[in-house]
Automatic annotation (TrEMBL):
It comes from the Bacteria. This is Acyl-CoA reductase. GO terms for biological process: bioluminescence. Keywords: NADP.
Amino acid sequence: MNLPQRINAFVKLGEFLSQFSNEIIQKKETVEHNAMFFEGFKHQLKLAEENNGWFTKENMAYAINGWANSLTPENLNKWLSEYNMEIAAPKNVAIIMAGNIPLVGFHDFLSVLISGHHALVKQSSNDKHLLPYLAKYLEFVEPKFKGTITFTDDKLDGFDAVIATGSNNTARYFEYYFKGKPSIIRNNRNSVAVLSGKESLEELQALSEDIFRYYGLGCRNVSKLFVPKNYNFELFFNAMYHWHPIIEKTKYANNYDYNKAVYLMSEFDMLENGFLMIKEDESYASPIATVFYEYYDTAEQLKEKLYSQKDAIQCIVSNGFIENEIAFGHTQKPQLWDYADDVDSIEFLLTI
């Protein structure tokens, strides 16, 4: 199977996914194998929501829309054009996936297969319904994928390289367990926003998407703000207000109530608006329904701090502050070439 065949198969998968990229699902007669797969994927979405309360219809549709938009001939060819996509022989690449947001491991799955290797996938129990079904669809639109994709719940065996994502604790275990294999090991990272105090209401409203999408569970979600001394949070809270229906989600509300009780009993200073709390804290990883903030003195000092702690940061959201910044509202809209932890997985896969 050559690269154009692999690209074409993923383009067809993107067309299939486009039917599910809105909360109102719309069947398209032009999509291949719809008679066999359309109703089945609707059922998988239902199972995914029942299995994981964070996987709401809205959030699954948002994730699927991102992939439907990415899996186009233009995007795939642009992404891969700078590489020599020839490999000596296919390798078995183990992929250990997280399960914090829907289809969070899809980029690794895509990268392994598009580069010509075989995928041995170990999924999180939190996100186990969608990808195996999409893999079956992929095998139907391109039968040469059959035999190149394996899902397992057992101990991983018979692999040549590994891409593993987990917490800081599991990452240390991965590094020890896979020390004899070529690997990409990812651990906890969080995203931050740098505010100057000159942001418009529209910019801060866009930032709310970076904070609340997927309930803040993704590594690309903003969990920490850096603000200048004497920053006034009034406009910030005004910009967040249109997300207030989020408190109607029971799991989110339970986390909000619990964390608020902890802060009050511990007599921590915090500000809240009924569905979001902000608390001054040097940490990057904030609990659900909470965003930490920290004051900075000068832009240069903050740049030095962020650079020194870059291994803890996934994205920096700002406007004209730093190189490779992400625009407000765009952390959950990564392109195919926006690699997690800034590690080029295609380059890695072409050299194993």
